[in-house]
Design a protein that fits this description.
The chain has 658 residues and is α+β, with helices and mostly antiparallel strands. It has a domain of 131 residues: Jelly Rolls. 56% of the residues lie in helices and 12% in strands. It is built from 25 helices and seven strands. Strands 1, 2, 3, 4, 5, 6 and 7 form a seven-stranded antiparallel sheet that branches. Helix 9 runs antiparallel to helix 22 and helix 11 packs antiparallel against helix 12. The radius of gyration is 29 Å and the shape is globular.
């Protein structure tokens, strides 16, 4: 990955060939060395500082992480256990097993150096990548030194879990691709091998990601070299294909992890809320998986799904609990055998409540994804030793200025993509693909810990943003020509395809959006309420159907506030289950007299009133009967209230008729 003096990114020709050019290249090499020294000293001195503050390498995950097999099996039956591993890709378990074999009592003595080397490699790759992308070496050294010495980087480096390894694989892949300059050969093969290592370490990077990266890279190389480039991806890709084929033949799924359906199902359940899940289960729309958590014990899976209990003779598949920790074994044979139930339920739930699902992604999952990456409870011990520094670094990461800096830098990078040389375009494209993939899968595929996903592309994002600024300044004239050409519609060899592709993509997205908005994006039922809630968004109508009785709809002040449930089509309803508001801990709010009206179209089909019990220290459930075959709307009106105002904690519609 040796570096040369910078080239202009238009056409890739050398800036000078004269004695002046040689002097310029000599200066550049000196700056490179200084930048590299900045990175080295920042890394080394920061590790001394953090170690002095008490930060230590944590290998407690070996006994507790669900992603790892039983440590006894990894030590004594490593080959067989890896062969029958379906829960996760193999490399994290392979590394753990080798450490346990070589140093069973102190595996950290082997694993800590591995993670330190991964940190050095990541920092080196990012520095080389920035200089490849024409960021001035001194600036690149300063930026990489800051990132490599940041609390988040060090905390993940001292936690034995795969995110830190993922960063090394990903940055290594991009920098080797950049060093190949988009030409087939050894370096392109090494880049592809890094992507294979990434997919075989972390299931987030599904084999589809590898296929997309290969297709994108091959499409961007010179037409006459595409067959060789495809071969460069096919050789290391055969190892990934072999692992997926093994899972298909033994366990019946094509991929690197049998957990995918459960992970997505867990996210969907969290975003839709327990009330909607309960309603779908009650009306028989979901499989037995609908009433379960995403990850249950093997014995529960066998009982609920009616599986025939069996013993395969493979300990990694038969164990219900791990030997020492007694934690559940999620590599049990019942996990892949029941995954299709979760996948089908996930599709049904999203189809029934697309608006609520998308709203949850935007309002809940996305903000969590972009929260501080070191908020993980598993690094809390080390973080407490550098609490002030970590809090300051998080405030910088979460600041509006940082987000604008990164966002604008990425926009500049995207704008420069059409005018940079082909050799640089391939590595930029892989960087953009990686960021887009992690953002999309992180937001939609995980809920609760998806900020950890952002760590994998955090440093790549900063690096690409820095390159965006550097190249926008360097290529400001070319950018001006590009934008003027786009504005005037000139038929240049570059501008015309970009214009046509951009307009086509915009029209396609608008068409898809209009179709969804007009025909598809309607929940099976929706909730609305009068006025504005008493405590703003935290007490909105949606809180009454989220399955959590501790969140409540608090009615606005005024006469007879109401909450309404609207069905997309006539629905048979047995009744409602109501939990009154309490406004804990004050217990000074609640509905006293609740008026219930249900409608068939515009016709009021029924009416009843009930007096709810006053707020207490516990949640009290009331059942109201409706027994109507075709209800289109239910309105609940609070005629009077206890304390400061009315409200409801939960409203569950009991569907079906007697």
């Amino acid at each position: 990955m040796g570096l040369r003096a910078p080239r202009t990114m238009v056409g890739g020709s050398s800036t000078t060939g004269s004695a002046q050019g040689r002097t310029q290249r000599d200066r550049y090499r000196i700056c490179q060395k200084i930048g590299g020294l900045i990175v080295f000293f920042a890394f080394a001195l920061s590790r001394y500082f953090y170690y002095a503050r008490g930060v230590r390498f944590d290998t407690s995950t070996i006994g507790s992480a669900s992603q790892l097999l039983d440590r006894v099996l990894l030590r004594s039956q490593l080959g067989e256990s890896l062969l029958y591993l379906h829960a996760q890709p193999p490399l994290y378990n392979l590394l753990t097993g080798l450490a346990l074999k070589l140093a069973p009592n102190e595996p950290d003595r082997l694993l800590w150096p591995v993670f330190l080397l991964a940190g050095v490699y990541s920092a080196l790759c990012l520095y080389l990548l920035l200089t490849r992308w024409l960021v001035p070496p001194l600036l690149a050294g300063f930026l990489v030194g800051l990132l490599a010495a940041s609390p988040a980087f060090v905390l993940y480096e001292n936690w034995y879990f795969y995110p830190h390894l993922d960063v090394a694989w990903l940055l290594g892949s991009v920098v080797w691709l950049a060093s190949s300059e988009g030409r087939p050969g050894f370096r392109l093969t090494v880049s592809a091998a890094h992507l294979v290592g990434l997919s075989l370490t972390r299931s987030l990077f599904h084999p589809l990601f590898y296929v997309l990266a290969a297709v994108l890279t091959v499409a961007l190389v010179a037409p006459g070299e595409r067959r060789r480039a495809a071969l460069n991806f096919a050789v290391p890709g055969s190892l990934l294909a072999a692992w997926c084929l093994k899972n298909l033949l033994i366990f019946g799924f094509l991929g690197t992890s049998s957990w995918a359906a459960r992970n997505f199902a867990g996210t969907t359940s969290d975003l839709l809320g327990a009330t909607r899940i309960e309603m779908e289960v009650a009306r028989g729309a979901l499989s037995p998986a609908g009433a379960l958590q995403a990850f249950e014990s093997p014995s529960t899976n066998i009982r609920v799904f009616g599986l025939v209990d069996r013993h395969t003779g493979v300990a990694a598949l038969d164990q219900e609990h791990k030997t020492h920790s007694r934690s559940l074994n999620y590599n049990h044979w019942s996990i892949p055998a029941t995954a299709h139930y979760y996948a089908a339920d996930n599709r049904r739930l999203i189809a029934a409540y697309p608006v609520t699902f998308l709203r949850g992604l935007i309002n809940d999952s996305a903000p969590l994804f972009f929260s501080a990456v070191d908020a993980d409870k598993f690094v809390a011990g080390n973080r407490s030793r550098i609490a002030n520094l970590a809090a300051y670094a998080d405030s910088v990461d979460q600041s509006l200025i940082s987000r604008w800096l990164v966002g604008l830098g990425l926009l500049f990078a995207a704008a420069c993509t059409p005018i940079i040389a082909r050799g640089s375009r391939t590595s930029w494209a892989l960087a953009f693909l990686s960021i887009a993939w992690v953002v999309a899968v992180g937001i939609a595929g995980d809920h609760g810990e998806n900020y950890r996903f952002r760590y994998k592309v955090l440093w790549l994002g900063w690096g690409l943003a820095a390159a965006g600024y550097a190249n926008a300044i360097r290529q400001r004239r070319a950018l001006a020509v590009l934008f003027v050409g786009l504005a005037k519609g000139l038929r240049r060899s570059l501008v015309r395809p970009v214009t046509i592709a951009g307009l086509s993509a915009a029209l396609l997205l608008l068409s898809i959006g209009a179709w969804f908005a007009s025909a598809r994006l309607r929940d099976r039922f929706s909730v609305s309420a009068s006025g504005s809630p008493a405590n703003g968004g935290s007490a909105a109508a949606e809180r009454a159907v989220d399955g959590n009785p501790t969140t409540e709809w608090l009615a606005p002040e005024g006469d007879a506030p109401w909450l309404e449930v609207n069905f997309i089509r006539p629905t048979p309803v047995q009744g409602l289950r109501i939990i009154n508001a309490r406004h804990a801990p004050a217990k000074d709010r609640g509905t006293r007299t609740l008026v219930l009206d249900w409608f068939a179209g515009e016709h009021r089909a029924g009416h009843t009133e009930v007096t709810l019990r006053p707020p207490t220290s516990s949640h009290q459930t009331e059942r109201l009967e409706i027994n109507r075959a075709a209800v289109t709307r239910i309105r609940l009106t609070a005629r009077d209230h206890y304390g400061q105002g009315a409200g409801l904690a939960e409203v569950v519609v009991l569907e079906g008729s007697h």
